Amino acid sequence: MENEKDLSDYRKVYNKKELLEANIPNNPMQLFQTWFYEVEKSGGIDEANAMTVSTIGLDGFPKNRVVLLKKFNENGFVFYTNYNSEKGKAIAANPNVCLSFFWPNMERQVIVKGKAVKIAANLSDGYFESRPRGSQLGAIVSHQSEVLASREALEAKLKNLEKAYLGKEITRPDYWGGYIVSPHAIEFWQGRPNRLHDRIRFILQKNNDWLIQRLNP
Fold first, then answer.
1. Catalytic residue at 195?
2. What global pTM score does this model have?
3. What is the Cα–Cα distance from 208 to 2, expressed in whole angstroms?
C-alpha cells in the first residue's frame, strides 16, 4: 500500500474521571442518566444522544450505524427509523442489538446489549406529529436503504410530495416508527491513566436485579 500511515504513535492520556463501585447506583439506568446529563453540561459534543446501533444483517454480517436516541427511561432506549430499512429488516429477523455511546470530551463510553421491539403505534404517532413538517415528508419520500437512481430523483419526489400535501395534515406511515431497546447488559467505560481503564458491567438477573461486575481493562 502506497503512502501507508503508521498510527502506532497516536497516544492520549486519560485522566479526567474515575468509576468506582462505591460511587455507583444499583441500577444502570440511573448511572446512564447521570453520565448523559454530565456530558450535556460539559459541552464539546454537538449531539450527546448520538449512538451507534449494531445489528446482524440478513447477509450474516454485523453492521453499525449512528442514529439519535430520542428517549430513555427505566425500560430502555428509544429511537425511530423506517421499519423497511436495512436495520428494520435486520431487527425483524434478529432483535438482539447493541447500542454504544462514545463521549470523548468526558473520556467515556457506554455499551448496551438488549432486545429491540417496536413501541406502541400511538407513541410513534405522537413523536411523528412533533417532528418538523420537512422531516415528516422526508420519512415518507425516502424508501430507506433501497437503491436510488440519483439525488435529483429524490428531490423531484419530494417536490411532488410537497404539492400533494399542501395544506393537508401529514400522518405517520405505518412503515415508520420507534423501537425500544430493553437492556440485558450495560457496560460503562471510563478512561484512566496507563490504559488501566475502569469498566463496570451490569447484567440483568431473573429477579430483575442487576449483577455488577468489574472487568479487566
1. yes
2. 0.92
3. 54
